[in-house]
Amino acid sequence: MLHVAQGMPRWAVTPCGFTLIELVVVIAILAILVGLLLPAAQKVREAAARTHCQNNLKQLGLALHGFHDAHNVFPPSGYTTVGPGNPAGKFVGWRPLTLPYIEQENLKKLYNFTANWWEGTNPVAAAVPVTVYQCPAVPYRPEVLTAIAKPPRPAMTFANPLAPTDYEAIMGVQPSSLNPHFSTPIYNSTNRFAVLHRDSRVKILDITDGTSSTIMVLEAAGRPRVYRNRTARPELSNDQGIGWADSEGPFSLDGASADATREGCGRDCAAPMNRKNDNEPYSFHPGGIHVVFADGSVRFVRESIPLTVFAALCTRAAAEVVTTDF
């Protein structure tokens, strides 16, 4: 009950509570504070995702060197024939070959190296998620329960969804795509390759362009869902990079158009990354991608890098001169 002092006029009594104007002012202040905090929180999340992603790639770099220490060569991007670590000559990718070096010895035991990656019980192993293969910056992606035929692999239906990967071996560059960017052609069928390519047996000494300036693995995130620039395109399909066990996921650099509708179209396709994620470098980090160099170091390469310079980083023995700070 409100008591009025004797002799005090009623108009001098201050009521309890807030006026409508005061409430509006408080709400406006809160809205401003939220508006200021949200971008800061987003930047913290992005920084955490980048750090996590960088650590994943560091482990993969160490794993590749662990394989080299054991076999005196780096693993290929994918085998189709007999080679170190693949005595049965089956279709197997670089990730199953390096499982012991990322503390996944039990998963390697589950994987059958006497069969192709899609045969027998190997799809069971391929369905096991491996955290080090996944970048936390990648948004939702649908489960992979089917795959169209990609000979010699037939069309497939999987009992359990294939576990994804956001990191891939770069096999080199496509000469027909990159040479139009130079006044004189540079690349050919012998100097176009990186460290990991089909059925390769590359030693450290074979990397004559320098281990600190030759990329082995980079981000190719979000696959097999297709992205154009930053927009998901579920109506488009992708038959490569459908899971971490897929040996057909690696690719060579082409360059893409700014609108992400084309790749390998000469001077009109000058974007080195982050335009299309189906068989081109791509990440969900603002401004660039992470890459693993042949010396095992991990660096963030800006998407503003010229395509010709990025191409030079994707070959191991083409004798290009890199002068740009990438």
Main beta sheet: 5 strands, mixed
Distance between the termini: 74 Å
Could you name the ranges where pLDDT drops below 50 across 5 or more consecutive residues?
none
What share of residues are in beta strands? 5-15%
Order of helices and strands: HEEHHHEEEHEEEEEEH
Radius of gyration: 26 Å
State the assembly state of the protein chains. single chain
* Overall number of strands: 11
Count of the domains: 1
User: Any idea what the shape is?
Assistant: globular
- Count of helical regions: 6
In percent, how helical is the residue content?
Answer: 10-25%
Order of strands in the sheet with most strands: 9-5-6-10-11
Q: Structural class, please?
A: alpha+beta
Mean model confidence by pLDDT: 91
Brief write-up:
The chain is of the alpha+beta class. The protein has helices spanning 20-71, 94-97, 105-110, 122-126, 175-178, 307-313, and strands spanning 78-79, 92-93, 146-147, 156-157, 167-173, 215-219, 227-228, 231-232, 251-253, 288-293, 298-302.
Describe the structure.
A 5-stranded mixed β-sheet has the order 9-5-6-10-11. Strands 1-2 form a two-stranded antiparallel sheet. A two-stranded antiparallel sheet has the order 3-4. It has one domain. The protein has 6 helices and 11 strands. It has helices at 20-71, 94-97, 105-110, 122-126, 175-178, 307-313; strands at residues 78-79, 92-93, 146-147, 156-157, 167-173, 215-219, 227-228, 231-232, 251-253, 288-293, 298-302. The mean pLDDT is 91. A hairpin with a 2-residue loop joins strand 7 (227-228) and strand 8. The termini are far apart. The longest helix is centred in the first third of the chain and has 52 residues, at 20-71. 24% of the residues lie in helices and 12% in strands. It has 326 residues and is an alpha+beta fold.
